[in-house]
Amino acid sequence: MKKSCFVIAVILMIGVMMTGCNAAQAGNGDTVQVNYTGKLADGTVFDSSIGREPLEFTLGTGQVIPGFEKAVFGMKVGEKKTVTIPVEEAYGPYRDDLVAEISREKLPSDLTPEVGQQLVMNQPGGGQVVVTITGVSDNTVTINANHPLAGKDLTFELELVKIL
Questions:
Q1: Which secondary structure element, helix H or strand E, spans residue 56, and what is its range?
Q2: Residue 88: CA atoms inside 13 Å, Cβ hemisphere, count?
Q3: Is the dihedral of CA 154, 159, 163, 164 positive or negative?
Q4: 39 with 55: CB under 8 angstroms?
Q5: What pTM value is reported for the model?
């Protein structure tokens, strides 16, 4: 009787260990749901999914910044971790060439420009770019096409909620 109880216990332990070893990991092409909180170096929270639905995206499709995708790759459901993503794998370096002063005449006549206001501008090649107004004078407006988080290392607290 003791021998059969021991055998059953061993079988159960092996089953538990194998289940742990076979837990799904997020991989290329998987659609995942992730809870996150993003912070700057000084601890300021710039974005979070807390209180909202988890962020859903497909790994390997470039829907999120490269460092975020890289951090989620290989995670298991329920796993949590904190990662710091360097500028190069986030929104890139801040570029002075993406800041320009333009004549107010180039803006729609019904627009009253204000610092902090975001505009969608047409590019010569037909695309569009979001710019932020960073300065206003009587004759000119300074616009910045850098992403607001450009030039910053970003820290994310991550939790893989689901692999779909």
A1: strand 55-58
A2: 0
A3: negative
A4: no
A5: 0.79
Q: What is the pLDDT of residues 104-152, one digit of tens each?
A: 999 999 999 999 999 999 888 999 999 999 999 999 999 999 999 999 9
Cβ contacts of residue 50 below 8 Å, gap of 6+?
Answer: 35, 37
Instruction: Give the residue-averaged pLDDT of 19-30.
Output: 79
Close Cβ partners of 119 (under 8 Å, ≥ 6 residues apart): 107, 111, 130, 131, 132, 133, 143
pLDDT digits (tens, 9 = 90+) for 95-117: 999 999 999 999 999 999 999 99
- Tell me the C-alpha distance between 104 and 142, whole Å: 10
All domains of the chain in start order, with CATH: 25-91+150-163 (3.10.50.40), 96-144 (2.40.10.330)
Structure tokens, 30: 């998987």
Do 140 and 102 meet the contact criterion of CB atoms below 8 Å apart?
A: yes
CA dist 58 → 31, 75, 85, 123 (Å): 4, 14, 19, 29
